[in-house]
Amino acid sequence: RTIGDRIGEAKASGNLGNTLKILGQFDEAVVCCQRHLDISQEQGDKVGEARALYNIGNVYHAKGKHLSWNMAQDPDYLPQEVKETLQKASEYYERNLSLVKELGDRAAQGRAYGNLGNTQYLLGNFSEAIAFHKERLAIAKEFGDKAAERRAYSNLGNAHIFLGRFDISAEYYKKTLQVSRQLKDQAVEAQACYSLGNTYTLLQDYERAIEYHLKHLVIAQELGDR
User: Fold this and answer.
1) pLDDT at 74 (0 to 100)
2) Taking a C-beta distance cutoff of 8 angstroms, is the pair 124, 78 a contact?
3) CATH 1.25.40.10 occupies which residues in the chain?
4) Cβ 131 vs Cβ 122: under 8 Å
5) Does residue 27 carry a pLDDT above 70?
6) CATH for 1-144, among 1.25.40.10, 2.60.120.260, 2.10.109.10, 1.10.260.40?
7) pLDDT single digits (tens) 14-26
8) Cα separation values, 120 from 46, 72, 125, 154, 224, Å
9) What PROSITE patterns does its record include (predicted)?
10) How many CB atoms neighbour CB 75 within 10 A?
11) Residue 74 phi, psi dihedral angles, 5° rounding
12) Of 51, 89, 44, which is closest to residue 67 (Cα–Cα)?
C-alpha cells in the first residue's frame, strides 16, 4: 500500500483470505478475498479476478462444511444457513468457471468442475454433481492427472449411490481401486475396497462384499490403522 502497488496489495489480501479460511475465520476471510477481487477487477487483472472468485468459493465451501459438521442434523434435512452458504460457494465457482473458460485455462476449469461437483453433492443435487464430476474426469484424463482422475471416480461412485444406481457405483469404485493401485496409495485403495464392500452389500452380492471387506481389513492391518 505504501508504494502504491495495487496488484501486490490484491495478492497479499488473497493470501490473507486463504490463511484466515484455514484458521476457520470465514467472515474475515471473505472480506480479504473480496478485496483481492475488487482490486483485480479495478486493475483489469483477469487472472487475479479468476483466482479471487475461486478463493471466495473455497471460503464458502469450507464454511458450509464446517457448519454442517457442527450441526447435529437429520441427513435428509440441510439447515437453511448451510444451504445458503453452499449455494454461494457454487455461485462463485460458476463465475470462476466462466472466466477461466474465457481465459482458456483448462487446468483451472478442471478444479472448478470438481468443486462444483462437491458443492452440488453436499446440497443433495446428485444429478448435477454427476454432470460436473464427469467434466472433471475428462479434464483429469486430458492432463494425465491420475490423482484427480481417482477423486472423480470416487465422487461419481458416491453420487450414484444416492440415486440408487448401485451397479454404476460399483463400476466407478472399481476404477477408483485400479487407479489407486497405479498410484500405489494403499490408504485410498483400502477406502475403495470398503466402498465396494458396502456397494455389493446393497446389491445383495454378499460373497463379493466379503471379498472386498477382507481386502480392506488386510490393508488396514498392514498400515497399522486401528
Assistant:
1) 66
2) yes
3) 1-144, 146-225
4) no
5) yes
6) 1.25.40.10
7) 999 999 999 999 9
8) 26, 21, 5, 15, 35
9) TPR
10) 6
11) -80, 125
12) 89
